[in-house]
Design a protein that fits this description.
single chain, alpha/beta, Nucleotidyltransferase, domain 5, five-stranded mixed sheet, four-stranded mixed sheet
Length: 318
Amino acid sequence: MCEFVIGIDAGGSKTIAAIRNLHTGEIFERLFGPASLSHDLEKACQRIKKIADELMLEFSVKASQCVIVCGAAGAGCKENSARLSRVLGEGFFAKKVTTDAQTSLFGAGLGEPIIVVAIGTGSVAMMLDKSGREMMKGGWGFIAGDLGSGAEIGRQLVSRTLVEFDATRELGRKLRISDLIVNKVLDVIGHERQHILDWLKSANATRYAELAPIVFECLPTSKIANQIVVQAAADIKELVESFEQEKDLPVALIGGLGEKIKPFITAEINNRLIEEKGSALDGALLLAEQLLAERILAEKLLSEQETKLTRSKENKNV
């Protein structure tokens, strides 16, 4: 019989995991290193497997006594989630590999209807409506989406910087740059054309996102910074409003940039904002309990069907 639930929130910067005794309520939680399935899939899968093993060792329990739910960055790719599921093995009472977006959704509202927008390096919105239906918007990645995200804020900052860079050069002579944010960016990406080209060649979403703090740091004095953040807030507003059929649901902005974007959100959306009730780890544990309930119900129904079938055969033999 299952006595424990395991929840794992595996991300690109860290992994938080916990095991809870369903009878006593005792919980053991630990912080581990990164385990995004998008970065070195095999290494991430092995790390998550090791994490699960260490959690079970803490309570000296077997996999058959546990339900495990892992919400992992990169699990939206079916190949990634299938690989992690295989590595975890078949010994658990029940298991589920899902996205960190889903665990964040269930954590932020603790299973109640809500719209959650996660704003970090990327951006994605998830909705759990009043009928229990889930829907995701955005989350298309840096090349085609992630509007309002740290990576997009950084990309716009670089783009605006390069416009200023070109505008302030005349016959190879440097002219004064009026917006100091431009110099801060050039200090990172280079003050010479070849250095900038080298930076652009190797830049990915993470490196662009690393520039986002400069925007918020320069907000009091930079026109460029204000314009970029206002645009990011407009993108987040559009993401929320894409759930047209659920205009009365509460909204939670989570992730590294959630709090920073809030002051720029329109009053209409701001009136719906709430603080998240729980974390992605809370969501994973909640989903584990739901999975356990579903498994128990399924086994009960199967047992009842088998009993009816047995009685039917016995009656025919009488």
